[in-house]
């Protein structure tokens, strides 16, 4: 199916989520060089719960700050504007995630933890891999790689949960989704990323993160997201160490990761999983 046909099919079945208005406004202000901290402060002051959430994540173990940040201006000064932008996005997505009901079949917060861990692993790749894609972009791609699952859960819950159950036997969630809907959660995720104005390469990485025999072998960013996703899956609820053989060889080959780099990455992933306080 071509992209336009896929888009109209998708948009006919789903309404894509929007980010909260305060977040969109703050992100716009952060991109504007003429805007000062006073302007930011005014927007933030209009939404105290949002400010509290941003500060809670900024002060979580992930950012290992030596002094706690106390307000948004302080967070911008210490973390930098790009990181603050990512944090705002994370808070906005979490609001959407929390609006989705949990039940005995599926708790969206489990998927959220997987998304945060994937983001942390993706942004911890060796520095040579961050030359073309800065760590904040890697983090965003990891965080949003499965955003399509949340949308499916929100709109086509029963059918999506049936796909998850069938995938336990067949081994391929994407195949089950294609069969049930004609598109996958990765297709939905790419559309959301596009709608939220993410760079094209991020849209592509989110849309292709399961394409092990295609895009993962051709595109480093797709390979990073795919590898981070696999590591996060392997680690979730697992007590034994993750073995190199369990990771997608297509991504390892594309990224040319050697044994030591893989060891460091896996250790970082384990360290992230322990504090597990990133939103
Ligand atoms: Fe996925
Ligand atoms: Fe995933």
Explained architecture:
This protein has 279 residues and is mostly helical. The protein has a single domain (3-273), classed as Hypothetical protein af1432 (Orthogonal Bundle), CATH 1.10.3210.10. 67% of the residues lie in helices and 0% in strands. It contains 17 helices and no strands. The chain has helices at residues 3-13, 21-31, 37-45, 48-58, 72-79, 81-98, 108-122, 135-144, 147-155, 157-170, 173-181, 185-195, 200-208, 215-218, 220-235, 249-255, 259-273. Helix 2 (21-31) runs antiparallel to helix 3 (37-45), helix 7 runs antiparallel to helix 8 (135-144) and helix 9 packs across helix 12. The protein is globular and about 55 Å long. The model has no long low-confidence stretch (mean pLDDT 88). One fe (ii) ion (FE2) is lined by residues 145-146, 185-186, 209-210.
Distance between the termini: 37 Å
Structural class: mainly alpha
Task: Report the C-alpha radius of gyration, rounded.
Answer: 19 Å
State the helical fraction: 55-70%
- Low-pLDDT sequence parts: none
Task: List cofactors, ions and other ligands.
Answer: fe (ii) ion
Strand content: under 5%
CATH class: Mainly Alpha
Task: List the main descriptive attributes of the protein structure presented here.
single chain; 279 residues; mainly alpha; Hypothetical protein af1432; 17 helices; 67% helix; globular; binds fe (ii) ion
């Amino acid at each position: 199916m071509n992209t336009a046909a896929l888009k109209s099919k998708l948009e006919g079945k789903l309404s894509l989520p929007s980010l909260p208005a305060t977040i969109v406004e703050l992100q716009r202000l952060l991109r504007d060089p003429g805007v000062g901290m006073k302007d930011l402060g005014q927007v933030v002051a209009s939404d105290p719960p949002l400010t509290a959430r941003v500060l809670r994540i900024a002060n979580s173990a992930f950012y290992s700050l030596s002094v706690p940040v106390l307000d948004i201006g302080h967070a911008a000064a210490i973390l930098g504007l790009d990181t603050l932008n990512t944090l705002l996005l994370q808070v906005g997505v979490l609001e959407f995630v929390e609006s989705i009901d949990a039940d005995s079949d599926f708790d969206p917060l489990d998927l959220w933890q997987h998304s945060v861990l994937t983001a942390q692993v993706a942004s911890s790749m060796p520095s040579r891999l961050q030359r073309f894609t800065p760590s904040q972009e890697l983090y965003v791609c990891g965080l949003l790689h499965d955003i399509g699952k949340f949308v499916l859960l929100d709109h086509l819950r029963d059918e999506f949960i049936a796909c998850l159950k069938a995938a336990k036997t067949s081994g391929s969630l994407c195949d089950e989704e294609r069969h049930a809907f004609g598109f996958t959660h990765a297709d939905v995720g790419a559309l959301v990323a596009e709608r939220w104005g993410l760079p094209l390469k991020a849209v592509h990485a989110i849309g292709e993160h399961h394409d092990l025999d295609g895009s993962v072998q051709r595109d480093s960013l797709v390979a990073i997201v795919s590898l981070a996703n696999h590591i996060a899956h392997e680690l979730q609820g697992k007590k034994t160490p993750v073995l190199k053989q369990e990771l997608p060889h297509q991504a390892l080959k594309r990224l040319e990761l050697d044994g030591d780099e893989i060891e460091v990455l896996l250790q970082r992933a384990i360290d992230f999983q322990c504090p597990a306080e990133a939103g």
